[in-house]
Structures are given as C-alpha cells and as structure tokens.
Amino acid sequence: MPRAGLTPDRLVAAAADLADEVGFDGVTVSALARRFGVKDASLYSHVRNLQDLRTRVALLAGGEMIDRIAEAVAGRAGKDALAAFADAYREYALRHPGRYAATQIPVDQDLVADAPAFRRTAEITYGMLRAYGLEEPDLTDAVRLLRSTFHGYCALEAGGGFGAPRDVRRSWDRAIDALHIALTHWPREA
Q1: DSSP secondary structure letters along the chain
Q2: Cα 144–Cα 151–Cα 58 angle in degrees, nearest 5
Q3: Cα(78)–Cα(76) distance, integer angstroms
Q4: What distance in Å separates the CA atoms of residue 100 and residue 9, rounded to the nearest whole number?
Q5: Residue 137's closest CA among 78, 64, 73, 188?
Q6: What does the pLDDT look like over 152-171, one tens digit per residue?
Q7: How far apart are CA 118 and CA 128, in angstroms?
Q8: pLDDT category of residue 1 using cuts at 50, 70 and 90
Q9: 123: which residues sit within 8 A by CB, 6+ positions away?
Q10: How far is Cα 145 from Cα 185, in angstroms, rounded to an integer?
Q11: Separation CA 112–CA 35 (nearest Å)
C-alpha cells in the first residue's frame, strides 16, 4: 500500500527541488527517500526507477520553462519575441540549474510525443521563428542554432566561464542582436 501523503506529483516536485539544490546528478531514489523520511522501497509504488523519476523531472521542468517562455513572448513578434524568449530561457536556466539540467537529458521520443509541454515548446518556438518567414527544413536548423546558442551561453555563464571584464548581460544582448540578424537573413535551403 502506498505511504500516505506520497504521490507521484509530490515526489517529482521534491526531486526537482532537490535537483536545484544539489544538481541533477544528485537526484537519486535514496536521496529523495531521505527527504521524505521513508525507505527507498516506499517510492517504488509511485515511480518505476531512477530513470522514470528523472524523466518525470525533465517533463516537469520542460513544462515550467515553456510556461515562462510563453508568457514572455505573448503578443510579441520578431526581435522582441526572440529577446523575450531568450531572456526567459536564460532566467530559468540560471534560477533553476538542476531543473534546467533535467531538460537537457535524452528522453524517450514516445514520451515526448505524448507530453503536452513538449508539444507546446515546439508550437511556441516554431511560431516565433515563423515570424522570420522560416519553413522546414530551415525551421529545424534555426531551432538547433537557438538551442545550442542559449544552452552554451547559459552553461558557460553558470559555470563562471566568462572571465573578461565586459558585462555578461551586455554580451547576451549582443548575441540576441546577432541571432536576430542571422534569422532575418537566413540562407534558405533550395
């Protein structure tokens, strides 16, 4: 019988909080059980295994992140939408490092296809990029450019990788300016 008070949603939320505190790699069934004052076995009626727990954290974090991005880009287009999208992405990554790390793990594509947050992520991201007149396969290429730029910047910033005296925020803004120019003048695939 499941222990009173423990639910999958409560466990996943606690695992996400734990990820932000100790890093995503520190999220284990044992660590989570200790947080609730129960034995590891008590959690297995709510999550199948560590991979299931981590996948659920990734889906939760992906949903939280896209909710913030969607709110930021609402009613905006072009460079304004791009900057709002980028800023919301960066803010989430820096404020929630463990959750953000969860969004970067490979997730079974069958789960992603059924996850509303991931469908919403595609809709919002592709919608923003369509304002630049992009269609497939250019949309996919542009998404990959944005994701790699945003992720790389956030990873370097979070790890203290920018040592030059120039303000990190100013460099971020210039990167968004450069991405806007690249998207505006995208080399269309024939």
Answers
A1: -PPTT--HHHHHHHHHHHHHHH-GGG--HHHHHHHHTS-GGGGGGT-SSHHHHHHHHHHHHHHHHHHHHHHHHTT--HHHHHHHHHHHHHHHHHH-HHHHHHTTS---HHHHHH-HHHHHHHHHHHHHHHTTT--TTHHHHHHHHHHHHHHHHHHHHHTT---SSS-HHHHHHHHHHHHHHHHHT-----
A2: 90
A3: 7
A4: 18
A5: 188
A6: 999 999 999 999 989 999 99
A7: 15
A8: very low
A9: none
A10: 14
A11: 29
pLDDT number for residue 109:
77
Q: How confident is the model at residue 117 (pLDDT cuts 50, 70, 90)?
A: confident
